[in-house]
C-alpha cells in the first residue's frame, strides 16, 4: 500500500465519524450498484430526515486526502460519472411483480483535505455536487497533520499493508485523539448550499435550548467574528454564546454572501444556517431543526 492510499483510507474513516456525530446520516462504505457497473463508494448513508414527495435521500460521498495538490476538474468529472451511473440504476417492474428495489434520491458530496480548483468548483456547481474543503479549518488542521505523521511512522516501519488494520491502528493511536475534541454537522446555508459546521465536541447540544423549560425556540443568534479568503475558498468563524463554529464555502458561491455582508449594518442578519440533527434526551431520539441567524459585527 502506498502512503497516499493509507492517508486516503484514514481520511475516509474520519469523514464517517464526523457525519455520524449527530445521527444525521447513517454512514457506511460498500459497493453501490450502478446501471453499468458497481462502484466502490468512500462513504454513503441515508439521511435520517424524510422529506415529503421524495424518495429517501442517500448521500454519496467521495473523499480525497492529498498532501498539497488541489482537487481538479478531472476528479469531479469522474465523480459525476459515478453519480449518474448510480442514479440510473432503476428499472420498472411488472405491475404483478413483488420484486421492487428500494429507491433513493441520490445526492453527491465531495470532501477534500485540500482546496478545489476554480474549474472543478464550476463543474460541481453545474452538476449539483456539494464540495467541502477542510484545508483552512482551524479545528481540522491538527487532525490532518496527525494523519500525515501517523502514516509516515507506519511507512518507516513497513506497516502499510492492510486497509482495515491501518484504520484500526489509527483509531487506537494517540493521533486519533483530536477527533474526540471536535464534532461536525451538515447545515444548509441560506436554504440552498450544504456546509460542514465544525466546532468543539458537543457544540450543537450545548447551544440548543430544547432542554430549557422557559425557552424552546429553534432560532439561535450567532455573530460573524471573522472572514478569511484565498484564491479558492472563503473561511468563516461564528460566535454562538461561548462556542466558536467554523465553516468554509467555495469562492464560486461566496459572492452572494459577501454582498449581503458588505451591505449590512450592525446587528443585521446577513445569512441563516438551517441545521437538522438528532438529539438524545432521556433515552429518546428527538429530531431537531435549528435555524442559526448570523448577525453582522462591526468590529471585524
UniProtKB/TrEMBL annotation:
Pfam families: Mrr_cat (PF04471)
Keywords associated with the record: Endonuclease, Hydrolase, Nuclease
One term of GO molecular function: DNA binding
Keyword Hydrolase tagged: yes
UniProt GO BP: DNA restriction-modification system
Restriction endonuclease type IV Mrr domain residues: 7-133
Record's protein name: Restriction endonuclease
Amino acid at each position: 500500500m502506498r502512503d497516499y492510499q493509507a492517508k486516503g483510507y484514514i481520511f475516509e474513516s474520519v469523514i464517517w465519524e464526523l457525519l455520524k456525530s449527530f445521527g444525521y446520516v447513517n454512514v457506511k462504505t460498500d459497493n453501490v450498484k450502478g446501471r453499468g457497473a458497481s462502484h466502490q463508494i468512500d462513504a454513503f448513508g441515508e439521511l435520517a430526515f424524510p422529506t415529503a414527495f421524495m424518495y429517501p435521500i442517500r448521500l454519496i460521498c467521495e473523499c480525497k486526502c492529498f498532501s498539497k495538490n488541489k482537487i481538479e476538474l478531472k476528479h469531479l468529472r469522474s465523480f459525476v460519472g459515478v453519480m449518474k451511473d448510480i442514479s440510473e440504476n432503476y428499472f420498472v417492474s411488472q405491475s404483478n411483480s413483488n420484486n421492487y428495489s428500494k429507491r433513493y434520491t441520490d445526492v453527491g458530496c465531495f470532501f477534500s483535505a485540500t482546496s478545489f480548483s476554480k474549474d472543478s468548483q464550476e463543474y460541481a456547481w453545474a452538476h449539483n455536487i456539494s464540495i467541502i474543503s477542510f484545508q483552512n479549518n482551524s479545528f481540522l488542521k491538527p487532525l490532518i497533520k496527525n494523519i500525515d505523521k501517523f502514516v509516515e511512522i507506519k511507512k518507516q516501519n513497513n506497516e502499510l499493508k492492510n486497509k482495515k488494520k491501518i484504520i484500526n491502528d489509527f483509531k487506537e493511536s494517540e493521533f486519533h485523539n483530536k477527533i474526540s475534541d471536535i464534532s461536525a454537522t451538515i447545515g444548509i446555508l441560506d436554504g440552498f448550499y450544504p456546509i460542514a459546521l465544525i466546532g468543539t465536541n458537543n457544540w450543537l447540544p450545548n447551544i440548543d435550548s430544547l432542554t430549557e423549560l422557559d425557552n424552546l425556540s429553534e432560532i439561535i443568534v450567532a455573530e460573524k467574528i471573522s472572514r478569511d479568503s484565498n484564491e479558492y475558498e472563503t473561511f468563516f468563524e461564528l460566535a454562538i454564546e461561548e462556542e466558536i463554529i467554523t465553516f468554509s464555502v467555495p469562492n464560486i458561491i461566496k459572492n452572494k454572501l459577501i454582498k449581503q455582508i458588505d451591505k449590512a449594518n450592525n446587528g443585521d442578519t446577513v445569512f441563516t444556517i438551517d441545521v437538522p440533527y438528532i438529539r438524545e434526551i432521556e433515552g429518546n431520539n428527538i429530531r431537531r431543526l435549528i435555524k442559526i441567524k448570523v448577525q453582522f459585527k462591526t468590529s471585524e
